[in-house]
Amino acid sequence: MTPAACKRIPISSARLSRLALWAALVAAVAFLAAPVRLVAQDCLACHGDASMTNSAGHSIAVDGKKFEQSIHGALGCNTCHADVKGYPHPEKVAPVQCEKCHADQANQLKGSVHTDSKDHPCTSCHGSAHEITPKTDPTSAVYPLNVPKTCGNCHANNGMAQKHGLDSVYPNYIDSIHGFALSKEGLLVAANCQSCHGSHGILSRKDPQSPTHKANIPVTCGKCHAKINANYQMGVHGQAIAKGDLNAPVCSDCHTAHAILQPTESAFRMQSTPICGNCHKDKFSTYRDTFHSQLGSLGGYVETARCWDCHEAHDVRPTADPASPVNPANLVVTCGRCHNGANLSFVQYQPHANANDRKLSPGLYFVRLFMNLLLISVLTFFIIHTILWIIRSRYNQVKAGKSGNGGNHA
Ligand code: HEC
Ligand code: HEC
Ligand code: HEC
Ligand code: HEC
Ligand code: HEC
Ligand code: HEC
Ligand code: HEC
Ligand code: HEC
Ligand code: HEC
Ligand code: HEC
Ligand code: HEC
After folding, report:
1. Are 334 and 389 part of one and the same domain?
2. Residue 408 maps to a domain
3. Does residue 293 fall inside a structural domain?
4. Residues 167, 234 within the same domain
5. Is 109's C-beta closer than 6 angstroms to any atom of ligand 3?
6. For ligand 10, atom 30, which residue shows the shortest CA distance?
């Protein structure tokens, strides 16, 4: 092995001897001050050879240029490889302890879902130890635009996380509004995995401290969607969650966590009626019987009234609340958004008309009762009529057979 060649500048012999003196002095100090700080070039004399392998045949080459450009480039090799103190160094070199210099990150990682240091070494997210760049550098594995791919190494189809029984998250995310904004538009402020989960202290959603625990989700999304969160908090659902009633919906119940769609897209508008309806089953079934829903379910026609067109999506309130858009005092305005010239008599129409509920819809109730009675009496009449007709025709057949004219069924 030849040491890496370095550029030499011609200098006078007087200066050379002065330099030699200094060099000897520095060397002496370095020798006395243990541990010896070896410069990268010393190690790269051997490890800079791209084809270098260890006795087991694995590559032990280090790209000196990339290392120099990395954030640790100014550190000597053996600030990390602390047990290499000279040459030849021992064949077995101890694993690097990143936590010696980054104790905060290491401690957070220990308390997280990625606690197992064999499965989740720092390099599992930060990439090659010799090529780490600052998180603000576009080449960093944890630069906002690169985070989804980094986490997706394990959280995708057949990834390591799926073998632990977790959903495959990456494919859903990357097709979502956030994933699209990030990967196609390069929008740095769009939510990446880290925005919602954190980085080193990631907790399971079952942990009440987790930003993805149900009760904390509005705050997590609200970091960016502040106005919508404020509206949501004023509404009946937000108030219920704030009181600890986890039956009410949070952002991800209606939008999902990873497959978030643009809510004006028909794909969202078509699927979301069942979303409100999952919890409000009675209102959903009555809505389904009425004109607005029948329209909506006709071959992709989506410009009809969905639950939130009448109720609001975030600031949802009980009918009795004067601020509710479905409070009787506000119906002319609410319905008028779509029905030009809607007046007091128009808004008498009941969007949740329930023919089985005599108190809520008395007119409908009695019409239904009358129609049912009519149906039953008509059916009864026809059944009796048919039975009598069969008896009569059988009687005629038997009579005709007795008089010798039977057997001809042409
Ligand atoms: C004279 C050549 C030479 C120099 C100089 C040298 N090494 Fe090595 N190093 C080797 C060889 C050969 C091996 C492979 C040992 C084996 O067969 O497993 C090795 C192995 C290693 C390993 C372990 C790789 C593994 O298999 O896990 C590390 C880490 C390492 N060297 C770091 C350094 C550092 C840091 C320096 C500078 C302070 C340095 N080396 C300087 C030749 C050298
Ligand atoms: C920021 C800390 C850090 C610095 C600085 C560093 N290394 Fe490493 N190095 C690591 C880590 C981490 C590994 C992975 C194995 C381990 O955990 O010990 C590693 C692995 C190695 C290996 C084994 C082969 C491989 O690539 O896995 C060699 C050889 C090596 N380093 C040489 C060097 C040389 C030469 C330098 C200086 C040019 C250097 N290292 C600087 C952290 C560092
Ligand atoms: C599960 C993936 C993951 C693992 C494992 C991981 N990191 Fe990080 N790390 C990140 C992400 C993501 C960021 C960027 C955070 C941000 O943008 O605020 C980051 C940022 C950092 C930073 C910059 C300062 C900061 O906290 O934002 C340091 C230093 C760091 N990590 C060190 C480490 C060390 C040391 C380890 C191992 C003990 C480690 N990381 C393990 C994902 C990880
Ligand atoms: C000898 C001390 C030391 C060791 C060991 C060390 N680092 Fe660093 N690291 C630093 C210093 C110094 C910086 C630059 C100052 C800063 O931003 O914290 C840095 C910066 C970083 C950054 C970028 C921080 C940012 O602002 O984005 C990451 C990521 C990082 N280190 C990860 C690691 C990982 C992973 C390991 C183990 C493989 C490791 N470090 C080992 C000293 C160390
Ligand atoms: C907009 C916020 C947000 C973003 C971005 C996000 N998540 Fe999530 N994630 C959540 C929430 C909230 C949950 C809680 C469970 C739920 O409601 O589905 C969750 C749950 C999870 C789970 C647990 C799934 C399970 O099966 O229990 C994993 C794993 C996960 N996320 C990984 C990721 C990864 C990897 C990324 C990036 C590709 C990511 N998340 C991006 C908010 C987010
Ligand atoms: C090296 C593979 C790997 C990487 C990289 C990785 N994860 Fe994980 N992650 C796992 C595994 C495996 C588990 C399951 C841990 C367990 O249950 O023991 C997990 C668990 C999780 C969970 C907890 C799910 C739950 O509710 O139990 C979340 C959330 C999560 N990871 C998010 C992330 C995010 C965000 C990133 C990127 C910053 C990331 N992961 C990077 C492998 C990885
Ligand atoms: C880090 C900031 C951030 C976080 C956290 C965040 N978002 Fe977003 N979100 C954005 C940005 C930026 C856009 C705009 C993307 C675009 O228009 O291309 C967006 C778009 C959306 C959209 C599409 C509608 C629109 O206004 O463009 C919905 C719906 C949405 N986010 C819901 C959520 C939900 C639910 C959560 C929590 C689970 C969440 N977001 C967390 C930044 C964030
Ligand atoms: C009960 C279901 C529900 C909950 C809970 C909910 N949303 Fe929405 N969200 C919707 C619907 C429905 C729309 C479509 C509204 C429209 O088209 O007028 C929407 C629209 C949006 C939009 C697009 C901008 C807009 O106003 O049209 C964003 C961004 C958004 N929601 C984020 C959030 C965030 C953040 C939370 C939690 C704080 C949240 N949502 C809670 C149902 C919900
Ligand atoms: C996860 C279940 C869930 C989903 C999804 C849901 N809600 Fe609710 N909703 C509730 C609960 C629980 C309450 C009662 C809150 C309270 O009063 O404490 C409620 C209350 C209401 C109220 C007030 C009337 C009352 O009975 O107190 C209206 C109106 C309402 N929701 C409409 C909607 C609309 C519109 C959607 C869809 C955009 C929706 N809800 C989605 C659970 C849900
Ligand atoms: C065309 C407008 C309109 C649509 C669409 C609509 N609603 Fe209503 N909703 C109303 C009106 C008006 C009332 C008050 C009169 C009543 O109770 O029938 C109401 C009442 C309610 C109530 C009871 C509120 C209370 O304070 O008791 C709930 C819950 C509700 N709707 C949920 C839904 C759900 C879920 C959907 C979608 C499946 C939906 N609504 C669709 C207009 C609408
Ligand atoms: C988001 C828009 C939208 C809102 C809000 C809305 N509707 Fe409709 N409605 C429609 C559409 C579209 C039709 C079908 C086209 C038509 O006939 O005008 C329709 C049809 C109707 C019909 C049957 C046809 C007709 O015009 O006589 C009635 C009755 C009706 N709506 C009542 C209401 C009432 C009452 C409200 C308020 C509680 C309301 N609508 C709110 C969009 C809306």
Report:
1. no
2. no
3. yes
4. no
5. yes
6. 283
Residue 149: in which H helix or E strand, if any? helix 147-152
Q: Against a cut of 0.90, is the pTM above it?
A: no
User: What is the number of domains present in the chain?
Assistant: 5
Which residue has 């104790």 as its token pair?
Answer: 103
251 and 267 share a domain? no
Nearest in space to 123 (alpha carbons), one of 111, 138, 140: 140
Q: Decide if 409 is inside a domain.
A: no
Q: Is residue 352 within 6 Å of ligand 10 at its C-beta?
A: yes
C-beta separation of 295 from 301 below 8 A:
yes
Does 129 sit in the ligand 1 pocket, CB within 6 Å?
A: no
Ligand located closest to 239 CA = 9
Q: Do residue 106 and residue 163 come from a single domain?
A: yes
Cα pseudo-dihedral 139, 141, 147, 150, rounded to 10: 130
Last residue of some domain: 134, 153, 183?
Answer: 183
Domain that holds residue 227: 203-260
Ligand 1 centre to CA of 89 (Å) is 7
| Extended strands (E) in 62-107 | none
Q: Are residues 253 and 286 in the same domain?
A: no
Q: Please check whether residue 190 lies inside any domain of the structure.
A: no
- Cβ neighbours around 153 below 10 Å, total: 15
Q: Could you identify the atom of ligand 4 that is nearest to the CA of residue 142?
A: 29
pLDDT in single tens digits along all 410 residues of the chain: 333 333 333 434 444 344 343 443 334 334 334 444 567 888 999 999 999 999 999 999 999 999 999 999 999 898 999 988 887 898 889 999 999 999 999 999 999 999 998 999 999 999 999 999 999 999 999 999 999 999 999 999 999 999 999 999 999 999 999 999 999 999 999 999 999 999 999 999 999 999 999 999 999 999 999 999 999 999 999 999 999 999 999 999 999 999 999 998 888 887 767 789 889 998 988 888 877 877 666 555 557 888 999 999 999 999 999 999 999 999 999 999 999 999 999 998 888 877 666 666 666 666 666 777 777 888 888 899 999 999 999 989 988 877 755 444 43
